[in-house]
Amino acid sequence: MGLALILGLAAAAAALILCGSLIFIAYLKFFRAGVLSPSPTSDVELGADGGQAADVSKPAISPQKEADVRRHRWQEVEALLGGRAAAAVIGEGGFSTVYLARLPDSTLAALKVYAGGGGELPRRAFRQELAVLLRLRHPRIVRLLAYSDDREEEDDEEGVLLLEYVPNGTLHEKLHGGGSTLPWAARTRVAYEVAGAVEYLHDGGGSSLPIVHGDLTTANVLLHVDLGPKLCDFGSARVGFSAAVGPAAPVVGSPGYTDPHYLRTGIASKKTDVYSFGVLLLELLTGRPAVGSEGGMTLAAAMAPRLRGAGSGVAEVVDPRLGGEYDEVEAAAMAAIAASCVGEQPTVRPSMTEIRCIMRAEVGSSVMSTSDEGSNGPTKETKE
């Protein structure tokens, strides 16, 4: 009787092992076929081997983009500048200077010249920005018109990007430059439309791999005359699920905007941009800069604890220059979104899609007042 019981149990165990083996084989088969493979736009951080940088030696470019974006010779660039000494400087960065240029049809454009002499970093930033911009077509992302890279072997210029000209300065200048106060409705509209541009990047920007901007700041949001925003400066962008930063690629970002998790781990993900977007929201809400106004603390560190919880402390931190001309319910919603974006744990931060859904529901009277299709992400014309 005992022997029969032992034989029965052994047979049952063998059957279970066989079934488990068949299920595992089937799983592998379907996984390799792509049926069970992870979504290319998932938020999973894959670590050092999971990230995929753009192939900057052979930028991805569609036939439509190839027809739109020209490769200039350096002589053509000099003609657009009309003489370097006389050209108006409209912006400067760590590796580049931006000049105002006039196209043959008298249209104004921005000519971004990457300066040499800085080693590998300017070259990498130029190649990375070029590779990313060639992938993108969105009404709230600055448009690449042409580029030049035929002076790379020399020391003075690493490359040139010819970009559309956005005439009304940066969001940073509007908020902190001492001019007229940016109205509340304009602030919520800017926030919503910038969120749409970042959502487009995170969804792949017309390609199969998500894009992390990597340096989302108010200084990298340009404004048109109607205050419509344009996201710019993709020299720190990364393409792929995530990317671990090693000695060859130092941690980059702007003070006050950089995700503390990224600083600790060197891993950039979509939630890195979400953190920076939260800081941008705090600037729009409070009118204070990301660094320098809170006794040595960053704006996120100073504001987030005060704003966690529905509506707590909001009236005390709203930009006083608005003179009370804002919607209290919308301000509370914006504060709650910002607080959730700058949370310590990236996994509990909302996605850009979730942020825009919340804004449509709770800040709708302002953000939906615009007829700009760009606020709703890529339109029929923007898809590659």
UniProtKB/TrEMBL annotation:
Pfam families: Pkinase (PF00069). This is Protein kinase domain-containing protein. Residues 46-66 are annotated as: Disordered. Keywords: ATP-binding, Nucleotide-binding. The keyword Nucleotide-binding applies. GO terms for molecular function: ATP binding; protein kinase activity. It comes from Musa troglodytarum (fe'i banana). PANTHER family: OS01G0253100 PROTEIN (PTHR27001), OS02G0648100 PROTEIN (PTHR27001:SF585). GO terms for cellular component: plasma membrane. Residues 84-368 form the Protein kinase domain. The keyword Lipid metabolism does not apply. It comes from the Eukaryota. ATP binds at K112.
